[in-house]
Amino acid sequence: MITFEHVQRHIAVFVAGIVGSFFLAVVVGKFWPPATRVVFCVSLLFWVIAMTNLAIREHRSRDTAVFSDPKEWSADELPHEFQFITRNTTLETLTSELGPHSPVADTGIIRYDLPSGGAIFIYFDPPSTFDSKVRGVQFYRDEDSVPIFPT
User: Fold this and answer.
1) Number of neighbours of residue 70 by Cβ within 10 angstroms
2) pLDDT above 90 covers what percent of the chain?
3) CA–CA gap between residue 18 and residue 74 (Å, rounded)
4) Partners of 100 in beta bridges
5) What is the dihedral of CA 43, 12, 66, 142, to 10 degrees?
6) Which residue from 16, 59, 114, 148 lies 20 to 30 Å from 53 (Cα-Cα)?
7) What is the pTM (predicted TM-score) of this model?
8) What is the pLDDT of residues 96-127, one digit of tens each?
Protein backbone atom coordinates (compact mmCIF):
# COMPACT_ATOMS: atom_id res chain seq x y z
CA MET A 1 0.00 0.00 0.00
CA ILE A 2 1.43 3.33 -1.08
CA THR A 3 0.79 6.12 1.38
CA PHE A 4 1.25 9.86 1.22
CA GLU A 5 4.33 9.45 3.44
CA HIS A 6 5.94 7.07 0.91
CA VAL A 7 5.32 9.47 -1.96
CA GLN A 8 6.49 12.45 0.09
CA ARG A 9 9.69 10.64 1.09
CA HIS A 10 10.50 9.65 -2.49
CA ILE A 11 9.84 13.17 -3.78
CA ALA A 12 12.06 14.67 -1.06
CA VAL A 13 14.91 12.30 -1.89
CA PHE A 14 14.50 12.99 -5.62
CA VAL A 15 14.58 16.78 -5.06
CA ALA A 16 17.68 16.36 -2.88
CA GLY A 17 19.30 14.49 -5.78
CA ILE A 18 18.48 17.29 -8.22
CA VAL A 19 19.89 19.91 -5.85
CA GLY A 20 22.98 17.78 -5.18
CA SER A 21 23.54 17.26 -8.92
CA PHE A 22 23.21 21.00 -9.52
CA PHE A 23 25.75 21.90 -6.83
CA LEU A 24 28.16 19.24 -8.06
CA ALA A 25 27.85 20.63 -11.60
CA VAL A 26 28.44 24.19 -10.35
CA VAL A 27 31.58 23.17 -8.45
CA VAL A 28 32.96 21.24 -11.43
CA GLY A 29 31.99 24.16 -13.70
CA LYS A 30 34.21 26.52 -11.71
CA PHE A 31 37.25 24.44 -12.69
CA TRP A 32 36.13 23.11 -16.07
CA PRO A 33 33.20 25.09 -17.54
CA PRO A 34 32.49 22.84 -20.57
CA ALA A 35 31.77 19.89 -18.25
CA THR A 36 28.97 21.56 -16.27
CA ARG A 37 26.07 20.16 -18.28
CA VAL A 38 27.63 16.73 -18.65
CA VAL A 39 28.29 16.43 -14.91
CA PHE A 40 24.74 17.58 -14.11
CA CYS A 41 23.15 15.11 -16.54
CA VAL A 42 25.32 12.16 -15.52
CA SER A 43 24.88 12.72 -11.79
CA LEU A 44 21.13 13.23 -12.26
CA LEU A 45 20.92 10.03 -14.31
CA PHE A 46 22.82 8.19 -11.58
CA TRP A 47 20.38 9.56 -8.99
CA VAL A 48 17.30 8.57 -11.05
CA ILE A 49 18.64 5.02 -11.47
CA ALA A 50 19.37 4.77 -7.73
CA MET A 51 15.87 6.05 -6.88
CA THR A 52 14.29 3.57 -9.29
CA ASN A 53 16.19 0.69 -7.68
CA LEU A 54 15.16 1.94 -4.25
CA ALA A 55 11.48 2.10 -5.24
CA ILE A 56 11.62 -1.39 -6.77
CA ARG A 57 13.28 -2.83 -3.67
CA GLU A 58 10.72 -1.18 -1.38
CA HIS A 59 7.84 -2.52 -3.49
CA ARG A 60 9.29 -6.05 -3.49
CA SER A 61 9.89 -5.95 0.26
CA ARG A 62 6.19 -5.38 0.87
CA ASP A 63 5.42 -8.47 -1.23
CA THR A 64 8.00 -10.71 0.47
CA ALA A 65 7.30 -9.82 4.09
CA VAL A 66 6.08 -12.78 6.13
CA PHE A 67 3.12 -10.80 7.49
CA SER A 68 1.08 -8.66 5.11
CA ASP A 69 0.45 -6.16 7.92
CA PRO A 70 2.75 -5.67 10.95
CA LYS A 71 -0.32 -5.50 13.21
CA GLU A 72 -1.43 -8.98 12.07
CA TRP A 73 1.51 -11.07 13.22
CA SER A 74 1.84 -14.47 14.83
CA ALA A 75 4.67 -15.42 17.19
CA ASP A 76 4.60 -18.99 15.81
CA GLU A 77 5.97 -17.77 12.48
CA LEU A 78 8.89 -15.89 14.02
CA PRO A 79 12.34 -17.46 14.50
CA HIS A 80 12.59 -19.48 17.73
CA GLU A 81 14.46 -16.83 19.76
CA PHE A 82 11.68 -14.27 19.03
CA GLN A 83 8.65 -16.47 19.77
CA PHE A 84 8.32 -15.18 23.35
CA ILE A 85 7.14 -11.80 22.02
CA THR A 86 3.52 -10.89 22.77
CA ARG A 87 1.56 -7.66 22.51
CA ASN A 88 2.32 -7.05 26.21
CA THR A 89 6.10 -7.36 25.80
CA THR A 90 7.87 -4.09 26.61
CA LEU A 91 10.97 -2.64 25.01
CA GLU A 92 12.83 -3.19 28.28
CA THR A 93 11.92 -6.91 28.32
CA LEU A 94 12.91 -7.27 24.68
CA THR A 95 16.29 -5.64 25.26
CA SER A 96 17.01 -7.79 28.32
CA GLU A 97 16.04 -11.02 26.49
CA LEU A 98 17.62 -10.36 23.07
CA GLY A 99 20.33 -7.82 23.76
CA PRO A 100 21.04 -4.57 21.93
CA HIS A 101 18.99 -3.60 18.90
CA SER A 102 19.24 -1.07 16.09
CA PRO A 103 16.68 1.72 16.41
CA VAL A 104 15.20 3.04 13.17
CA ALA A 105 15.50 6.83 13.46
CA ASP A 106 12.42 8.67 14.75
CA THR A 107 9.97 5.89 13.90
CA GLY A 108 9.33 3.95 17.13
CA ILE A 109 10.66 0.86 15.35
CA ILE A 110 13.62 -1.29 16.39
CA ARG A 111 15.46 -3.73 14.14
CA TYR A 112 17.13 -7.03 14.84
CA ASP A 113 19.31 -8.40 12.05
CA LEU A 114 19.23 -12.15 11.51
CA PRO A 115 22.15 -14.42 10.55
CA SER A 116 20.31 -15.21 7.29
CA GLY A 117 20.59 -11.55 6.29
CA GLY A 118 16.91 -10.96 6.98
CA ALA A 119 15.57 -8.74 9.72
CA ILE A 120 12.79 -8.37 12.23
CA PHE A 121 11.25 -4.95 12.76
CA ILE A 122 9.35 -4.50 16.02
CA TYR A 123 6.89 -1.61 16.25
CA PHE A 124 6.04 -0.03 19.61
CA ASP A 125 3.19 2.12 20.84
CA PRO A 126 4.17 5.79 20.72
CA PRO A 127 5.95 7.42 22.37
CA SER A 128 8.69 4.82 22.25
CA THR A 129 10.08 4.38 25.79
CA PHE A 130 11.30 1.37 27.77
CA ASP A 131 7.71 0.85 28.98
CA SER A 132 6.20 0.86 25.46
CA LYS A 133 4.42 -2.32 24.39
CA VAL A 134 4.69 -4.16 21.09
CA ARG A 135 2.23 -2.86 18.51
CA GLY A 136 3.39 -4.95 15.55
CA VAL A 137 6.13 -7.15 14.14
CA GLN A 138 7.41 -7.53 10.59
CA PHE A 139 9.70 -10.38 9.60
CA TYR A 140 11.81 -10.53 6.42
CA ARG A 141 13.49 -13.88 5.76
CA ASP A 142 16.38 -12.74 3.55
CA GLU A 143 18.49 -9.66 2.91
CA ASP A 144 16.94 -8.79 -0.46
CA SER A 145 13.53 -8.48 1.17
CA VAL A 146 14.46 -5.97 3.87
CA PRO A 147 13.18 -2.46 3.06
CA ILE A 148 15.56 0.45 3.26
CA PHE A 149 12.92 2.75 4.73
CA PRO A 150 10.54 0.72 6.91
CA THR A 151 7.25 2.32 7.87
Assistant:
1) 19
2) 28
3) 43
4) none
5) 30
6) 114
7) 0.59
8) 999 888 888 778 888 998 887 888 889 888 88
